[in-house]
Design goal:
This protein is mostly beta strands. Helices cover 6% and strands 49% of the residues. The chain has one domain: Sandwich (Jelly Rolls), CATH 2.60.120. A six-stranded antiparallel β-sheet has the order 2-1-3-10-5-8, with no helix packed on it. It comes from [Actinomadura] parvosata subsp. kistnae. This is Cupin.
């Protein structure tokens, strides 16, 4: 088997059950089993869906700042609560609990890596989620 470099910003890495690893065009097919590692450059809020909340109902998620500075916000666990803010700088990560809504805001252009179980992820406009929690 020939081993070749993988361009992380053009491909997702799918860690399959049984120990197999597949690299392919991101995003991967959500119907596959296993975990997905995705790395991307983010220059604007649009690159991180800053105006949306995201949740993974099937598993926890790792959000890591490889280069730059970002803020990870977690939706309040109870209606009327405050958003939780986690500041991530280069080389740091946070584990988002399963079923917890989160969003990312850039402080500066950044390189971000996420690791999550394929499937179970949903996006919802920020205004819609905030209104539901009040």
């Amino acid at each position: 088997m020939t081993v070749t470099p993988i361009e992380l910003f053009d491909a997702g890495i799918h860690l399959r059950q049984g120990g197999r690893i597949h690299a392919g065009k991101a995003p991967m097919d959500p119907g596959r089993d296993g975990w997905q590692l995705t790395a991307f450059h983010a220059k604007t809020g649009a690159d991180v869906h800053a105006d949306h909340w995201q949740v993974n109902t099937e598993a926890e998620e790792v959000v890591s700042c490889i280069i730059g500075k970002i803020r990870l916000y977690l939706c309040p666990e109870r209606p009327g609560g405050q958003e939780e803010e986690i500041r991530l700088t280069a080389g740091t990560a946070a584990i988002v609990p399963r079923g917890r809504w989160r969003r990312i805001q850039l402080d500066i252009p950044s390189t971000i890596m996420t690791i999550t179980l394929t499937g179970g992820a949903r996006l919802e406009e920020r205004a819609g989620r905030s209104a539901k929690d009040r």
